[in-house]
């Protein structure tokens, strides 16, 4: 009988660096493929319209003026504005920086009409040519 001398095997080692590389690649993949939904902090009940257009990405997105049910204004990225004069100042400054500025009015359906008209007047005073209102699409029957 022949007895052979067995060599002792070393325990397999886990290569941590390779695992970290794989995790980084997975993390990058998930970050790139995940879509982020922008949710405004100001909750508005928008009026419905059958001709509502979906907003898409634009090279120069419009500046948004939001008006809540109480008639309070918010300019741009939801900066609170206390008075129409402050809104006028901010819109005039923004219009001076961007001559082809677009303004979008996002008003609650219970917002006072007077507040909406004030924003329209301020936009006209700032010589803003493109002014639009945000609405939501009318619910389709049967859905």
Features:
143 residues; Nucleotidyltransferase, domain 5; two-stranded parallel ribbon; 7 strands; 31% helix
Write the layout of secondary structure elements.
Elements: H1 16-33, E1 48-49, E2 63-67, E3 73-75, E4 79-81, H2 84-97, E5 102-107, H3 113-125, E6 130-133, E7 136-137
Parallel strand pairs: 1-7, 2-5, 5-6
Antiparallel strand pairs: 2-3, 3-4
Explain what this protein looks like in three dimensions.
With 143 residues, the protein is an alpha/beta fold. The protein has a domain at 48-137: Nucleotidyltransferase, domain 5 (2-Layer Sandwich). It contains three helices and seven strands. The protein is elongated.
